[in-house]
Amino acid sequence: MGLDDAQPMSDFTHKLCPPDEIEQRTAALPQPVVFTNGVFDLLHRGHVTCLAQARALGASLVVGLNSDASARGLGKGPERPLNTQLDRACVLAALESVSLVIVFDEATPVELLKRVRPQWYAKGGDYDIEALAETALVRSWGGDARALPFVDGQSTTTLVQRIRG
User: Fold this and answer.
1) What domain range is 52 assigned to?
2) CATH number at residue 30
3) What is the pLDDT of residues 103-136, one digit of tens each?
4) Which terminus of the chain, N or C, has less C-beta within 10 A?
């Protein structure tokens, strides 16, 4: 099969949500909506497993993506993130499990959650879900939160260390 015979690439960019469309776009999603967030710098098996598990909690998955500035403030190192926020957003948007990607600048997604108002908040099992302000916020409007099983040995930091040898 030559390049001319290939199927056209699907356009996933419609899943990238600008800030001024958050309420309208999330309200139009199939319910219930699940929300998760992170940097998702070098996407790996742990990330996609967590995203698929989060999506399984509801009918739609909204991913809050730390902006480049926000990611740098998380103490992952001066060279991180390795990929730009646009590149990271596009990789996430191309995943079948992801319904919408929204970039946020704050250290936590609390303000974004107030606008999305999901029925579920999900995070990887490496977080104490009960200690997160996000959990209390989602429960305040009748939603719930779930810690998803952590996939051992899968982290961007580990990948970066392996690449650097």
Assistant:
1) 15-164
2) 3.40.50.620
3) 999 999 999 999 999 999 999 877 899 999 999 9
4) C
